[in-house]
């Protein structure tokens, strides 16, 4: 099952007042997500991601830098190069054109991964709890 | 046409003594007259013995003349005449005494030939022919000709080689040459004898190009191990193949026989070959009809029907499929073993196919029935159309195998037209979509859509939208008719697929767009030929 990684609704970058200055896929000296190359149906050659693998680092005008993590175990199929040139779409259309990356988990892990995710409802409950506890 | 002459005498004597049957003897004497092989076994045996006895009697060498009409008559009439005709050259006076001796010898069991292991003996007889024809008739096939294919055990090649070496040796002693290529092949002689008999019983001619194949596999378990020595002598000819039971296939054995040196061969294999106790066994007699191809065009009126069965983990996700709805009736009529469905492209489960429909072709494997007139096909078409309202077929006809190529051409090269019902988030007015009508040859870059990415390689496709025509419906809906290049993903052109198809309707209209319904209006392939439906 194909997974598309995007910024969550509640992410700071999507809150008012933030301006994104740059998106960087070079996550370490030896690894750039831009160099990811896959071939064939089974996507050989893909960089393998664990839940905590960084996808990219996004800098905002107020000096903050946010690391976006994969959250899904699997092969990295592609990263969205459009946000490199046009970071604005990350904020304008975070769930569609502003996606971060596409990941393909192993067939066997597909079900367990899906079960480990939050449904829309569960997510909203988490946000609500967060709001209540901080006030 | 050759006949037995003096120079053949030593071969005949040698082979007869070592347990070779008359027909194999004729083969090694390079006798090319088909009619002679068809003579009854007993008569051939008798006459060979005659021939051997006659060496003192005659100065003329010809005792086994087959050029004369009498023997041809045998072939045409297909009767058991034999003796009188063959011996017309003058050994007639000796028949009585010779006959008695021969009959006495023939009454004892016929020895299994050490070269053909009975193929040119028992398996040329009427009994075997009857057995084969019984099998053919009970299988209930329709056919107008047949091709008879025979699979011989590999040991026969080995024994043939041994016999040839034996004969060569003998001829060498006498200072006479022996050409290997003139020796009649066993399979060829066998077919000379059995084809006319099969043809007569089945009532149809033998034809090398026939689609109806009757095949017999022979085996000789008693001598199965005889090929083993070749493996040690030529190991590289015998590679273990996972899907074959035995490494000693006919081809491998023949290859090894070509490579092995005479001395090595003679070291490991008895020459002359030993006389076996048993005949070959006919393991299987099978019938197979060549595939027939049925083509047509189909319309799909359901938004809930996959083209091929949709089964995941053994569970069917949606009932039926286009292919099953069409093939079901064809399989029943043609009585085939199985089918292969192919079409000029395909559509999603939720997409209808309107207009003239999409070309398809079905290969029916091993059909029992093959004779269908144009009327029959029309009737079949009606049956299919009456059986379901989800699909309809037209132009149903029999085609040749080459047809499939033409159809696949269509898949990649020809244009298609579609009708899409589109929704937009922000309101639109007529003016907002009018410009779409003027866009010609719009170039798209489509990355592999996410919805198929799990089973397709990641790639970028350049596709062209030739023309578009919009139909305004309301502030959030319009219908778009498009004519596109083959292989264009329409749904992705409408919603943009996360921006991975560019340009897209959303980007062109500067809104978010999505597709509600899609129909294929036409598949622009002019095949199969349209019929008066």
Automatic annotation (TrEMBL), chain A:
Cross-referenced Gene3D superfamilies: 2.40.50.100
Pfam families assigned: GCV_H
Chief localization: other
UniProt KW keywords: Cell projection, Nucleus
Location in the cell: Cell projection, Dendrite; Cell projection, Growth cone; Cell projection, Lamellipodium; Nucleus speckle
Top-level taxon of origin: Eukaryota
Gene Ontology annotations of biological process type: dendrite morphogenesis; regulation of actin filament polymerization; regulation of filopodium assembly
GO cellular component: dendrite; filopodium tip; growth cone; lamellipodium; nuclear speck
GO molecular function, one term: actin filament binding
Keyword Transmembrane among record annotations: no
Record PANTHER family: PROTEIN ABITRAM
Family: Belongs to the ABITRAM family.
Protein name per Swiss-Prot or TrEMBL: Protein Abitram
Native source species: Chroicocephalus maculipennis
From TrEMBL, chain B:
Name listed for the protein in its UniProt record: tRNA pseudouridine synthase Pus10
GO cellular component entries: mitochondrion; nucleus
Domain Pus10 N-terminal eukaryotes, chain residue ranges per copy: 113-287
Alphabetic keyword roster: Coiled coil, Cytoplasm, Isomerase, Metal-binding, Mitochondrion, Nucleus, tRNA processing, Zinc
Enzyme Commission number(s) of this protein: 5.4.99.25
Residues in Pus10-like C-terminal domain copies: 293-524
Catalytic activity line of the entry: uridine(54) in tRNA = pseudouridine(54) in tRNA; uridine(55) in tRNA = pseudouridine(55) in tRNA
PANTHER family from the UniProt entry: TRNA PSEUDOURIDINE SYNTHASE PUS10 (PTHR21568:SF0)
Listed InterPro entries: PsdUridine_synth_cat_dom_sf, Pus10-like, Pus10-like_C, Pus10_N_euk
Family as reported in the entry's similarity comment: Belongs to the pseudouridine synthase Pus10 family.
Amino-acid biosynthesis recorded as keyword: no
Biological processes, Gene Ontology terms: tRNA pseudouridine synthesis
Molecular function per GO: metal ion binding; RNA binding; tRNA pseudouridine(55) synthase activity
Major localisation: cytoplasm
Compartments, as annotated in UniProt: Cytoplasm; Mitochondrion; Nucleus
């Amino acid at each position: 099952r194909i997974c598309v990684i995007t910024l969550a609704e509640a992410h700071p970058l999507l809150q008012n007042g933030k301006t994104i200055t740059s998106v960087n896929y070079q996550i370490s000296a030896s690894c750039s997500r831009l160099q990811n190359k896959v071939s064939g149906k089974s996507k050989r050659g893909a960089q393998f991601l664990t839940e905590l693998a960084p996808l990219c680092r996004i800098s905002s005008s107020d000096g903050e830098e946010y690391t976006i993590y994969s959250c899904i175990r699997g092969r990295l199929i592609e990263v969205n190069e459009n946000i490199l040139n046009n970071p604005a779409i990350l904020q304008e259309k975070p769930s569609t054109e502003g996606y971060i990356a596409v990941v393909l988990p192993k067939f066997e892990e597909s079900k367990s991964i899906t079960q480990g995710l939050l449904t829309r409802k569960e997510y909203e409950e988490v946000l609500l709890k967060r709001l209540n506890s901080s006030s | 046409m050759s006949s037995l002459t003096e120079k053949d005498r030593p071969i005949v004597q040698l082979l007869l003594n070592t347990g070779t049957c008359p027909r194999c003897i004729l083969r090694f004497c390079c006798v090319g007259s088909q009619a002679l092989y068809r003579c009854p076994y007993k008569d051939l045996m008798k006459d060979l013995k005659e021939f051997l006895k006659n060496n003192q009697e005659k100065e003329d060498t010809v005792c086994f003349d087959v050029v004369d009409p009498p023997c041809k008559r045998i072939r045409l009439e297909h009767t058991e005449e034999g003796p009188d005709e063959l011996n017309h050259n003058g050994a007639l006076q000796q028949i009585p005494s010779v006959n008695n001796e021969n009959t006495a010898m023939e009454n004892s069991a016929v020895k299994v030939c050490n070269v053909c292991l009975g193929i040119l003996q028992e398996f040329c007889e009427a009994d075997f022919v009857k057995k084969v024809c019984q099998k053919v008739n009970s299988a209930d096939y329709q056919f107008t000709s047949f091709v008879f294919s025979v699979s011989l055990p590999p040991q026969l090649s080995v024994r043939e080689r041994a016999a040839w070496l034996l004969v060569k040796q003998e001829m060498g002693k006498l200072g006479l040459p022996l050409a290997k290529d003139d020796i009649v092949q066993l399979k060829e002689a066998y077919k000379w004898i059995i084809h006319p008999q099969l043809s007569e019983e089945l009532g149809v001619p033998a034809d090398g190009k026939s689609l109806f194949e009757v095949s017999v596999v022979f085996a000789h378990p008693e001598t199965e191990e005889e090929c083993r020595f070749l493996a040690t002598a030529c190991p590289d000819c015998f590679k273990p193949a996972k899907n074959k039971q035995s490494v000693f296939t006919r081809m491998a054995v023949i290859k090894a026989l070509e490579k092995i040196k005479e001395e090595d061969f003679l070291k490991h294999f008895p020459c002359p070959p030993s006389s076996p106790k048993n005949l070959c066994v006919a393991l299987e007699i099978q019938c197979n009809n060549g595939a027939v191809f049925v083509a047509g065009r189909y319309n799909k009126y359901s938004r809930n029907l996959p083209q091929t069965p949709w089964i995941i983990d053994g569970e069917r996700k949606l009932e039926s499929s286009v292919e099953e709805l069409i093939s079901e009736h064809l399989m029943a009529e043609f009585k085939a073993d199985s089918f292969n469905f192919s079409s000029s492209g395909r559509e999603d489960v939720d997409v209808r196919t309107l207009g003239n429909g999409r070309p398809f072709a079905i290969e029916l494997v091993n059909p029992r029935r093959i004779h269908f007139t144009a009327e029959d096909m029309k009737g079949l078409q009606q049956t299919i159309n009456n059986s379901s309202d989800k699909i309809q077929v037209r132009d149903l006809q029999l085609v040749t195998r080459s047809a499939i190529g033409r159809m696949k051409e269509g898949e990649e090269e020809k244009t298609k037209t579609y009708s899409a019902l589109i929704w937009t988030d922000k309101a639109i007015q007529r003016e907002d979509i009018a410009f779409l009508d003027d866009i010609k040859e719009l170039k798209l870059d489509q990355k592999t859509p996410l919805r198929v990415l799990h089973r397709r390689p990641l790639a970028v496709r350049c596709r062209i939208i030739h023309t578009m025509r919009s139909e305004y419906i309301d502030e959030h809906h319009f219908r778009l008719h498009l004519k596109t290049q083959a292989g264009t993903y329409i749904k992705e052109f409408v919603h943009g697929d996360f921006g991975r198809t560019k340009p897209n309707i959303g980007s062109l209209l500067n809104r978010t767009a999505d597709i509600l319904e899609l129909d294929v209006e036409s598949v622009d392939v002019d095949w199969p030929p349209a019929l008066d439906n």
